[in-house]
Write a structure and sequence with these properties.
Oligomer: single chain
Helix content: 10-25%
Strand order of the largest sheet: 1-2-3-10-5-8-11
Order of helices and strands: HHHHHEEEEEEEEEEHE
Number of helices: 6
Structural class: alpha+beta
Length: 204
C-alpha cells in the first residue's frame, strides 16, 4: 500500500503538501503512509481514493486499471475493517473514475461503534438493514433503523453507525461519491436533515 500511494501521487504529479490538502490529512501522516509506518483506516482509504479520483477497490488494486473489454467484470470482496467483537465491513464491488459507486455489507456487534470522518462534498449513502437495529448518526442528527427499514444519508460530515439492540446489526450500503478536495457544508444546508427514511415497500 505504501508504494501504491507513492506511485499514484507521483503519477498524478502531486506534492506531499498537495496530497495532504486534498485528503485533509497532515503532511506527516501522508509521509508515514508512504513510508509504510502507518496503516490506513477505512476513512483514510476513502480520503486517498477521492484525492486520486479512484474507487477504494482500485486504490487497493496494485495492478493498473484498464478499460474493460467486456460488459461484465468479476469483482473480489475485501474485508476492510474488523473488530475484536466480530464486527466487519466488506467492500464487494465499485466503479472507477471521478464519480464512484461502491457496494458494501456490514455486521456490527452489540457495543461496537464505527465512526467515520466527513466524505467528499455531497456524498450519498443508501443503507438497508436486514437484521437487528442500527443507530445512524450524521452530524447532530440521529435515527434508529430496524430490520426491513432503509435510509438515504448525506455523509459529507462526520457520521457513525452502531448496533442498537442486543443482537448484531447487519446492513448493506451503497455509496455514491465524487473525487476531489473535501469542503465544509454550506451554512444554508447545515440545518437540513441529512437523514431521509424510507420503509421497505416489498410487502405492499
Amino acid at each position: 500500500m505504501a508504494l501504491r500511494i507513492q506511485d499514484l501521487r507521483r503519477d498524478q504529479k502531486l506534492t506531499l503538501d498537495r496530497l495532504a490538502k486534498l485528503t485533509g490529512l497532515s503532511k506527516g501522516t501522508v509521509v508515514a503512509l508512504e513510508q509504510g509506518k502507518a496503516n490506513p483506516s477505512i476513512a483514510i482509504l476513502c480520503r486517498l481514493a477521492a484525492a486520486f479520483s479512484l474507487s477504494v477497490a482500485d486504490l487497493l488494486n496494485e495492478a493498473p486499471s484498464t478499460a474493460p473489454d467486456h460488459p461484465i467484470q468479476r469483482s473480489v470482496s475485501r474485508t476492510l475493517w474488523t473488530s475484536a467483537k466480530g464486527s466487519r465491513a466488506q467492500l464487494h464491488t465499485s466503479t472507477s473514475g471521478r464519480t464512484m459507486f461502491e457496494l458494501w455489507s456490514w455486521v456490527l456487534m452489540p457495543g461496537d461503534v464505527f465512526a467515520a470522518d466527513a466524505h467528499s462534498p455531497a456524498t450519498r449513502e443508501l443503507v438497508s438493514v436486514t437484521q437487528g437495529s442500527l443507530k445512524v448518526t450524521v452530524g447532530s442528527h440521529k435515527i434508529i433503523l430496524n430490520a426491513g427499514e432503509c435510509a438515504r444519508l448525506v455523509t459529507d460530515q462526520t457520521h457513525s453507525y452502531a448496533a442498537a439492540s442486543d443482537v448484531s446489526a447487519q446492513f448493506s450500503m451503497a455509496v455514491l461519491k465524487r473525487g476531489g478536495q473535501r469542503a465544509p457544508v454550506p451554512s444554508s444546508l447545515a440545518a437540513r436533515s441529512p437523514l431521509a427514511v424510507s420503509q421497505d415497500l416489498a410487502d405492499r
